[in-house]
Structure formats: structure tokens, C-alpha cells
Design goal:
The chain has 19 helices and 14 strands. By secondary structure, the protein is an alpha+beta fold.
């Protein structure tokens, strides 16, 4: 190894960071493992994960195996660390330990830790996880809350400090043994989120925030709610391997309790029973999220139903996980405003006369700002979406023309915000962009019942009714590109987006998934930021200051 001008000779062990290092280590270790297996055939368990080994059996068998490892390991370059080795017995007596070195850690109540997971009584498991959380989480949360950029702090919380921190524990420890630790962890995460948001959450907002983004949430999943699903799937996924190790059938005595816990969180049609063998945590968690969303929709007002349905549309959530770079970067005010609006958290103290139009009521959630006719915000929003679509069409080398004139003979109408020549079958395409709000009075009842109702109705009744037949008469194709104010879009756009993504990917020799992510995040972030600016520009104090 080279360190500056110095050379550090690698004379023992394996090179740190060498991808072949673990393999080379295991080749040497296998010699020792095979000798233990040959000389002590009656051990119940002789399994290793790298340098972490587990030997289970009668005292005399374990002692014999230990002597082989201790005495013959050095000849292979393997040395035991006595201070990290544990002797475990459930006999409540320490007589079985008397022939082992005094430096070894002795546990005689059955409480233990193996491969970073607690095994034993509920008190032991709860205390063990609490100790883990208390050692690092408070400092981490404090750093996130004081980072100075809410969007970045949230993404770090989401990806690095929330549910992922508990996944290993809830997949390896039965949920009822760590329920209190999970509950405390969830409260810690949600408290951090509230601090980033600058507002507390109602019961309904809390529940929505814990849903996956595909279900209209923000992805801060509850470790307590998903713990049974995690352990169940982990057990059945690893069961064949465990039975191979033990050479016998394995039955988990806790499974009926865990099934009951899981079944209480899903619909009756999705209940597990004794014959179930689910191996996918993702599938089980999706069932929990779907049932939670259905319960939430039943428990809120008609306006909130429309909001939740709109938030759960495909790709509406793209802004939530977008990295804060270039035009996808939100200011702290923009991010908190978008997140409050997404979760149904009040942005204003009370309903009041809109400070901009001075004629309509600004509701506490800021929805009026999406339809307020003054200040040109609706035109700006329209143009931002149009320009992003134009950029991607240009990247695909489709030769788009923005706001092309005289598409209809003798008329100055502009049915094409973006004109694309020779789009398909020798026909040109007219792309007509619009943004509508699903929670406005004329849509809210139907939008609460039907996914994408407002954007599809606007596309049919306003756009297509006025232009589609006339465009067809000109031998062209017509595409109403209507977006909802929460990010969803009309039914005909997915086919157009798929073709656009494919064309851009091919032209730049990039993966479709990367281009797709770029497109949806660009549109979603631009839309949400535009609406946030419309809301904040209507703060009464803003008008007093200017």
C-alpha cells in the first residue's frame, strides 16, 4: 500500500478493501471449520459468517470445538479475541463454564446478541435496541434539524435515519419483543419531521406521512406497524437455509402471534394463516399501506379525500424523493409549503380574503392560490410545464416548435403549446398543456371518488371538445397534457411520456430509468415549486411589507 511517499508492506492477513479479501479469508477459515465438523460431529450447530462463528451443543462438545479453534487457529493466522467471545447457557447456572477461560463473557440467562441482533427476553431485546438508539440517534437527529436546508435534511432522514435504521432489528427480532422500542423510534423520527416542517401533524396527517409515496405519503414508514411483516417475511425467506444448516424441519413458536399482529393491519382478504409462507416484505408492507390509505380516506372530509386520491396518482410523488440539485432544489419555505399542502396541514391561521385578488376566500390550506386569477401565476405555471416538455422533446431531436402560429387556416388560435412534426405515422402532434386543481368546488366530489378525475375531465370537456376534431381535420394528432396541482396527469400522457423517454434515452445512450426519473422529477418539482410560490406570495404580511 502507498501512503504519500511511504510504502506500507502488506505482510499478514488480507488487504483492507480488497474485493477478494473475504473470499481468501473464508478459504483459510474453512480448514478450521471442517476440522471442527470432523472431530466434533455431535455439535448441534457449527456455522460461520466470516469471522463470526456459532457453536451450539453439549458442554463437552463445545469445549472440544473451542480447543480446536483456540489451539490450531494460530497456525492458520487466525487468533481468537477472548474479550469478544461469549459463552451462553440457559441453565441458570455457571458450573458449565468452569473449564473455559475466565476472560470469556458469560451469559447464563439465555439473553444474547448474535450478528448484531438481540435474542432472549423482551426486557433484554428492548434494552438492547434502546441502548443502540440512545448512543447515536439523538446526535444524528440534532444534526439533521440544524443542517439549514429542509429538503436535504428530509432526504437524509428518509434514506439514512428513519425506517432503514430499524429494518435489521425488525427482521430478526419478533415484533412483540421490541414494540416499545419501535414506538419510541417512530416518535423520534416524526418529531424530527415536524421540526423540519415547522408544524405539528394531526392524526390524519401523521398517518399519511407514514404511508409509502406511491400511496400518497412521504415514505416515513412506521417500524412498529411494519415489524410483524418484516419478521414474517424474513423467517420464511431464510427458513430453507436454516433447515439446511440444522438438517431438520424448523417451526417458529411465535408465528401465530405475528400473524395476528399482521392481520390486524390489513383487510380480511389479505389475512395470513397457518398455511401462508410469505417471503416478500415489500408485498406485505404494500398490503399494510393500502389498507391504511383506505382507512384514512374513510376518516377524512370530502376535500381531504380528493387531496389524498390526487396525491396517490402515479408519479405525483416524484418531487418528494428528488435530490436538491439545479431546478429540483427547493428553498426551505418552498419545501415546507409543498409538504404542508401535500399532508393537509394548515398554511394559514384561518380562512380570509385573498391578499392578491381581494375577491375570493383564501382557505387555510392555500388551495385557492392554484386557481387565483391575478398576478399571472397560472400562466407562469403553464409555461414552466410547457418549457420542460419542450426541452425534453428537443433532447429527443423531435424538432418541436413552441406556440406555433396559424395551425388552423384563417385563425390565430394556438391549440399547440408544443408542435411536433412527424410524430407518428407521418402525422404532426399538437401538445396542449394545462394545469387544474382537483380540490376546487366543481371537481372535489368526483375527484374524491375517481383517480385523476379533474385532469381527465378537463382534458375531455375543455381541451378535446374544443380542439380535437378540428386538429384531426388538419390531418394531425391532438394530445391534451393536463396536470393536476398535486402532480398527477391525464390518461393519454403515459404513452407519450414512454415514447419521449425512449427517444431521449436512445439519443444520449442512457438508461431509460434515469431519463424517466429525470423527466418526472423535473415536471413534479417545477409544478410544486410554482404552486408554493403562488401560496407564499399571497401571505398577508407579504403585501404589508411591499
Amino acid at each position: 500500500m502507498f501512503f504519500g511517499s511511504n510504502i506500507i508492506p502488506s505482510e499478514a492477513g488480507v488487504q483492507q478493501g480488497d474485493p477478494l479479501g473475504p473470499f481468501l479469508f473464508c478459504l483459510v477459515l474453512q480448514v478450521l471449520v471442517n476440522k471442527v465438523r470432523t472431530c466434533v460431529p455431535n455439535l448441534s450447530l457449527n456455522n460461520w459468517y466470516m469471522d463470526d462463528g456459532s457453536l451450539f451443543g453439549k458442554v463437552e462438545d463445545v469445549l472440544k470445538a473451542w480447543a480446536i479453534i483456540r489451539d490450531e487457529g494460530p497456525n492458520l493466522g487466525l487468533f481468537v479475541n477472548l474479550s469478544k467471545c461469549e459463552l451462553i447457557s440457559s441453565s441458570q447456572a455457571d458450573a458449565c463454564f468452569e473449564n473455559f477461560e475466565p476472560e470469556l463473557i458469560r451469559i447464563w440467562n439465555g439473553d444474547m446478541t448474535i450478528l448484531g441482533s438481540a435474542i432472549g427476553s423482551k426486557q433484554h431485546c428492548e434494552n438492547w435496541i434502546s441502548q443502540k438508539l440512545d448512543s447515536k440517534m439523538p446526535l444524528l437527529i440534532n444534526k439533521l434539524e440544524n443542517l439549514g436546508h429542509s429538503q436535504s435534511s428530509f432526504l437524509l432522514l428518509l434514506y439514512c435515519a428513519s425506517f432503514c435504521k430499524m429494518v435489521w432489528y425488525i427482521r430478526t427480532i419478533p415484533s412483540f419483543l421490541i414494540s416499545q422500542s419501535c414506538e419510541r423510534f417512530d416518535a423520534l423520527i416524526m418529531n424530527c419531521f415536524e421540526n423540519l416542517l415547522g408544524s405539528g401533524l394531526s392524526k390524519q396527517s401523521y398517518m399519511q406521512a407514514s404511508l409509502g409515496t406511491k400511496n400518497g405519503g412521504v415514505g416515513l414508514r412506521s417500524s412498529k406497524s411494519h415489524s410483524a411483516a418484516a419478521y414474517i417475511s424474513s423467517f420464511f425467506k431464510s427458513k430453507p437455509l436454516v433447515q439446511t444448516f440444522l438438517a431438520k424441519s424448523v417451526v417458529n413458536p411465535h408465528m401465530h402471534i405475528l400473524f395476528e399482529s399482521f392481520n390486524s393491519l390489513v383487510s380480511a382478504d389479505d389475512h395470513l394463516n397457518s398455511s401462508s409462507c410469505p417471503t416478500s416484505q415489500k408485498c406485505l408492507s404494500n398490503l399494510i399501506n393500502t389498507h391504511s390509505l383506505n382507512l384514512l380516506v374513510e376518516d377524512v372530509s370530502i376535500l381531504d379525500k380528493a387531496r389524498l386520491v390526487s396525491c396517490s396518482m402515479p408519479h405525483a410523488n416524484a418531487w418528494i424523493r428528488a435530490l436538491p440539485a439545479f431546478r429540483n432544489k427547493f428553498s426551505c419555505l418552498e419545501w415546507s409549503t409543498c409538504m404542508k399542502r401535500w399532508l393537509g396541514v394548515p398554511i394559514f391561521n384561518q380562512d380570509h380574503l385573498c391578499a392578491a385578488c381581494q375577491s375570493q376566500v383564501m382557505d387555510t390550506f392555500g388551495h385557492h392560490a392554484c386557481v387565483c386569477p391575478v398576478k399571472g401565476d397560472r400562466i407562469k405555471r403553464h409555461n414552466i410545464i410547457r418549457d420542460i416538455l419542450f426541452e425534453f422533446c428537443s433532447a429527443a431531436a423531435w424538432g418541436p416548435v413552441k406556440e406555433k402560429l396559424f395551425l388552423f387556416p384563417g385563425s390565430s388560435e394556438r391549440p399547440a403549446d408544443i408542435f411536433i412534426p412527424n410524430y407518428s405515422g407521418g402525422k404532426n402532434l399538437f401538445v396542449d398543456v394545462a394545469v387544474t386543481c382537483p380540490v376546487q368546488h366543481k371537481y372535489v366530489v368526483d375527484a374524491a371518488q375517481t383517480l385523476g378525475y379533474s385532469c381527465n375531465d378537463y382534458a375531455d370537456e375543455v381541451k378535446s371538445k374544443n380542439f380535437e376534431a378540428r386538429v384531426h381535420e388538419e390531418g394531425a394528432l391532438y394530445l391534451p397534457a393536463v396536470f393536476e396541482s398535486f402532480g398527477g396527469f391525464s390518461r393519454d400522457l403515459p404513452i407519450f411520456f414512454s415514447k419521449l423517454i425512449n427517444s431521449v434515452s436512445l439519443r444520449y445512450d442512457d438508461l431509460r430509468c434515469i431519463t424517466s426519473k429525470h423527466l418526472y422529477e423535473s415536471l413534479s418539482c417545477a409544478l410544486m415549486k410554482s404552486i408554493a410560490r403562488s401560496i407564499t406570495s399571497r401571505f398577508p404580511e407579504y403585501f404589508r411589507s411591499v
